[in-house]
Amino acid sequence: MAVDNVSFSIYEGETLGLMGPNGAGKTTLVNLVTGKYLADSGHIHFLGQDITRMAPYKRCKLGISRTYQIPRPFPELTALMSVVVSALYGKDRENQSLEDAATDATHYLEFCGLFSKRNVLCKDLTLYELRGLELARALATTPKLVFVDEVMAGLNPTEAGKAVNLLERAKEEFGVTILWIEHVMAALMKAAQRVVVLHYGKKIAEGLPQDIANDPVVIECYLGSCHV
Amino acid sequence: MELEVKREKLVLRLGKQKYEWHIEPRYWRNPLTYVGILVILPVLAYFFYPTILPTLIDANLLAAIAIPLGWMTLGTGRMNFGPQFYIGAGGYAAALCSIHLGWGPAITLIVAIAVGLFFGLLMSPLTIVAGGLYYTLLTLLFPLVFLEITFIYTDIFKGDVGLFGIAPMVNVGSFTVNQLLICFMALFIMLIYMFIVDKILRSKFATALAAINDDEEVAEAMGVNVRKMKIISFTIPAVMIAIIGWFYSHYYGTFSGITYLPLSFMLKILMVNMIGGRVQIYGNVVGGYFIAFLELILIQLLGDYSPVVFYIILLILLLTLPEGLFGLYRKRHYREYLPTLHVRR
Asked: DSSP string spanning B86-116?
């Protein structure tokens, strides 16, 4: 079972880190909350509403958005049009024209430092730019909760640093709550208020970053010989 | 009289008179110019070479099938290999109503639309449950099953002989004038389709379609109601294609499944789509005319060998121009994928 009996809460305005070795079920958990997969049992509540069986696009309109571990751009759309899709459909807005959405989208592209790339096809963007585009696309849906899936994967230290700063600024400027999946513990230790650790689909620890860093079960899981 | 192109000017000298016109590239991109040419073509054909009127009708109808098919392909993110099923549905519905109930084209049009809508809605869930190759194979199968049904129920569909005695589209007494009027009607339908689909592809609706075409899972995660979009993008084009079936039925006065339902007709439509460029509305018109005239020229030059050479030429074109004729234009304007919106600082 990819995710088994995992229960946790995330509070408005916080950054919750989600950690775990490869195959721990982190991305599966995101897929369950965003609606890609439906849970066999249990419940998912968002802002007091049960969203367990809700379609993914409805969850998005409620305020749940995500980025992907391996960027999944719309390859044949320009960067601008990719973000326009989110701006148009991410939330029901009355009388919103394509031009209004484009104006919104340019704002998010500018925020992510991609304004100069607005007319470039997504398939021609670099990995770092794609990470920025993913975030712009997620923010354009005006979310309340953003799932950030391994934003530092494949980036060099400078780019990774920029990506982390971008996330912090996004949180400040748009007031979003972030659930951040990450392998790099150092990044989470700095940015997250709380951390949840998964292993083989089960939650093995939850708490403050410094407590998690010293948790013997977590250390064992990362260094080996951990049995859940 | 002397005509020359000089410094982006077209210069005409008539005796001592000199006329100059600036050649502005932006004028060449105005669709109205091409619409004007398409309107003039049948008139010229009527006066100078009436035998090509049927080819012009064919070209317009092929383009009119390919245009909604392009929308369907974009909006469902899947390639439908059986658009001719809806031609059969619309055509047979119109033919049967006309023969058995004595209805004219105006009433049978409503029937064809209703039948197209019914089958479109009935089959639209396929776009949700079947993906990739399975969808393609299923859509490929439907027209062939329909063809078999026309042979099994010969008393209704008259098998390969087909239904005849269908009320003509127009009848003014002269065959050539009839052809000219029908050519204008085919052109009108094609232009209406072009206008509708062009408007859709420039609207905000198209951004969702383009997103679905690229990655429907991500599109849904970004708030697009993928199922609704797919059903709309499947059903309405199906109705539009069924109307072409109605047109064929009343244009020829006979309707036989063996003409439209086999793979050869489907290949022709797909070639229009491919040659013109996938989801390129104007490209489909170019593709329609290209295929219709290529077929005509090959029949006149090669006779019985023309079908073989026709498909060999198309295969070569597909290999050399994978993105169709519009691909040549795209190479120079690579951002011009639909939908496109430019923002300048």
From this structure: HHHHHHHHHHHHHHHH---HHHHHHHHHHHH
